[in-house]
What we know:
This protein folds into two domains: about 1-215, Transferase(Phosphotransferase), domain 1, CATH 1.10.510.10; about 225-448, Recoverin, domain 1, CATH 1.10.238. Helix 3 runs antiparallel to helix 5 (about 140-155) and helix 5 (about 140-155) packs antiparallel against helix 8. The longest helix is centred in the first third of the chain and has 20 residues, at about 55-75. The protein has 20 helices and 13 strands. The chain is mainly alpha-helical. It is globular and about 70 Å long. The strands form six sheets. It has a three-stranded antiparallel sheet with strand order 1-2-13. The protein has a two-stranded antiparallel sheet with strand order 3-6. Strands 4-5 form a two-stranded antiparallel ribbon. The chain starts with a helix and ends with a strand.
Amino acid sequence: MLLMREVDIFTTLDHPNIVKFYEQYSDEQFVHLVMEFCSGGELLDKITKDGHLSEEETKRIMAQAISAVKHLHEKGIVHRDLKLENFLLESDKPDAAIKLIDFGLAKRYDPVRQNLRTVVGTSYYVAPEVLKGKYNDKCDEWSLGVMMYIMLSGDPPFDGEDEPTIFKLVANGQYSLEGQLFQKCSQEAKDLLSKLLEKDAEKRYSASQALEHPWFKTGSKKGGERTIGSYTSVMNNLTKFQKQNKFKREAMGIMVSQLKEEDLKKLKDAFQFFDKTGAGEITVAQLNQVMSELGLAHTHEQIQHIVNNIQLEDKDTIRYTEFLTAAMDQKSYSNKEMLWTAFKFFDVDNKNSISTQNIKEVMARAGKKLSEEDMAEITKELDVLRNGRITFEDFCKMMNEEKIDPTEQQKISKGFKEEDIEWEDKIAVEKDRDINDVKIQGFSSVKN
Length: 448
């Protein structure tokens, strides 16, 4: 089933410029996908409204788009339908990030089997080799080139009255960089265009090569002196972060989505500062480099310890959502509104308590599997709290409990004072309230 393949691909991805998938569930008529909400509309609409984009704006957006594609390809996934309509703006702000959507035609690519043969895509953006029915992941880079061309000029490089005409122009691979708008473009921009719109897929730039192009090294720089202090603060949060079970980590992820826009943007900017190659993951070497740039004393063992505490998978990298969760300011775990939203997210049967079955169901809907060891650890914690179920008060205490190394034989609690727990009235009001009525900021449910 194509939809299930799309969900499977979504659960593999974790990148600041790819729309985040939260969960999927079904009713009698529909399969619902709950995904990140992007309020800024399609990138195509922005270009249609403005006519075209400046070179600097194009550079900012292309860096994000190429980074997203690099992440896809490193996961062995080819999108096969990259186009301006499939990039959404996170918000209506001038510097809004873009998010790649619609993985309905995406497929896992096997270089050995060379399993990409179906002619798919959108006429303006399709690569010449796709029309021949034998291609690889470089078809995505061609589409990126078409996007860049349209952003700079307002027109597609291959245009015609109908699809056969467009396909003929694409197959020939001939396009023009003449005209008033391209005369204003830098030579670096034109050079990158020629590398992406290279007819020979073997000679065409990969996403990794494109991100290293001199065009991205010129002009305005992101970040700056004003952000160094916030990066140091983020690094301190990462250093303090300790391993948690998957249930608590998932709850932390829900709380990240509740952060104020400006706070979340700081974390996203920090991630991009740490992610030196734009791959969507932070390596031990990159973390070491950042600490050196920030003037923080460290050893390789300390760096490895930080990565081991933050990562959920057994690999020497920190993924995007793992980073946001660990980098979030600890005071956020005392925000009762955010705690309540996270609690109700797991209270799927609306009993104002959370069971192991609730946790299993929510994790399964998010496409995440819990091992027997995971469930044993979670069950042990639940039994300690309250007979296998967590009340909201229990949940607050758990989320505010700082877990430290076992050798210290103790836990440091930042928990609530008894007089601060004033939620019983709200719980009573919510008792008969359906879980679907709980507003989760940044979530959007769509039907397929």
